[in-house]
Design a protein that fits this description.
By secondary structure, this protein is α+β, with helices and mostly antiparallel strands. It folds into two domains: 62 residues, Orthogonal Bundle (Muramoyl-pentapeptide Carboxypeptidase, domain 1); 128 residues, Muramoyl-pentapeptide Carboxypeptidase, domain 2. 32% of the residues lie in helices and 10% in strands. It contains six helices and four strands. Strands 1-2-4-3 form a four-stranded antiparallel β-sheet, covered by helices on one side. A hairpin with a 2-residue loop joins strand 3 and strand 4. The longest helix is centred in the middle third of the chain and has 14 residues. It is globular. The chain binds zinc ion (2 copies). One zinc ion binds next to strand 2.
Length: 200
């Protein structure tokens, strides 16, 4: 209940009771995070709650901007317990977020890296414009200094990840290993604590 309240959901007072409002707040959270919706705070919901708090992924940010309705997303999203689809949205505020354009392979790699590092990873920060990147629509991509037109972000095949509290060497050893295994196509360090990675 504390965590739900902090994130801007309404569990109806922090009384430790599992009332109707609490179940509805859990349902709202599960819907926003593309989890199975049952109103019960099971293991996957609890995991996602902790990551959401760590990443300041508030209820108001957990919507797809301007599209009105969240897009119908393929079932494979539910396999990746560490990330909500909204974390990969284009932050321009005009294109509707484009998360339906994300490819499973890169979401799987981000999820596996989160699992491996054992600490939350930020893709698109709450303010949208301070480092991370998932999907980018063409016009947002082209507005970024130094971006290339045919960026894999525009294809939904790249993420820029922000890792705090992990040495870059550890992140990079892992990325090099995934590249050698043919799982990722290319990666580079953007700045300390921030890396780009993409898939074929
Ligand atoms: Zn956009
Ligand atoms: Zn990138």
């Amino acid at each position: 209940q504390c965590l739900l309240t902090y994130l801007g959901y309404d569990p109806g007072g922090i009384d430790g009771l599992d009332g109707q409002k609490t179940r509805q707040a859990i349902r709202d959270f599960q819907t926003a995070e593309n989890l199975g919706v049952d109103g019960v705070a099971g293991e996957q919901t609890a995991i996602r709650l902790k990551d959401a708090v760590w990443q300041d992924r508030f209820a108001k940010d957990n919507i797809v901007p301007s599209s009105g309705q969240p897009p119908d997303l393929p079932d494979w999203w539910s396999k990746y317990k560490w990330f909500a689809p909204s974390e990969f949205r284009c932050p321009c505020g005009k294109c509707g977020g484009g998360i339906e354009k994300m490819h499973e392979g890169i979401v799987a790699e981000a999820n596996a890296l989160r699992e491996y590092l054992g600490v939350p990873i930020v893709i698109v920060p709450p303010d949208g414009h301070s480092g991370g990147s998932g999907y980018r629509c063409q016009s947002y991509n082209d507005s970024l200094a130094g971006s290339v037109k045919n960026s894999r972000h525009v294809q939904g095949k790249a993420v820029d990840i922000i890792t705090r509290g992990v040495p870059d060497e550890k992140v990079e050893a892992r990325l090099a290993q995934r590249k050698a295994a043919g799982k990722i196509r290319y990666w580079y360090r953007i700045s300390p604590g921030a890396h780009h990675m993409d898939i074929e």
